[in-house]
User: What shape does this take?
Amino acid sequence: MKIISWNVNGIRAAEKKGLYDFLLYKKPDVLCLQETKAKQDNFKQKKLDGKNIFLSPGKYNSYWSSAEKKGYSGVVSYTKEEPLSFKNLDDKEGRIVMTEFKKFYLFNVYFPNGKMSSARLKYKMKFYSDFLSLIKRYEKKKPVIFCGDVNTAHKEIDLTHPKANEDISGFLPKERKWIDKVIESGYIDAFRLFNKKPNNYTWWSVRTSSRSKNIGWRVDYFFVSEKLKKNIKSCKHLTKVMGSDHCPISLELKF
Assistant: This one.
């Protein structure tokens, strides 16, 4: 089973930059997109048997969470297999969609950015705390996988200039400690199972042309329940894929 997660920084922009070609080439079983900046009813959709189906380049079921604010936030999960259940878990800012499969729950999440103000940082930390409590409740039933833009680099090797950013939201000690808590709670940072080297990033500032210089941050993750460790076959950054200031990340599982 292949799951791909990608902060597309606008799904309509990504569509124009080759999102369909990417889908056709990679053929994921599940595609989790963040920062869609769109509502389900204003994006290309057709209905088949009463269900919303993403038709190009094949049939995908789609599950949306959109922000109340126009052109802001939002996530969508596309699945080849119809999930057992799904939930939109954030109606206001459109940040969480849960899809349930036979072996696990999958959470597609766009975590808040705390750089704008102290109020947004406070909101981000509460979101972190509430989300960890949420998945712990689900974990009692079956294993949990969550993916998306976490908006925090965990370790010093996860960004190019750690010292210069240690007082900036996205690398604050309390943000990084939350990721420690996630791992202590029994979730594996899947990418680090396979690659423990520095200079592996998923986001680069477009204002400074930093991608060509690989001056970046690793802020996009797959966290997988320890119960599924033996099922994890690979986790990669698809850094050659353009179309956003983030690159896609992929997780492959075998059951």
Notes: Residues 118-139 form the longest helix (22 residues). Residues 46 and 53 are 6 Å apart (CA to CA). The first strand starts at residue 2 and ends at 7. The radius of gyration is 17 Å.
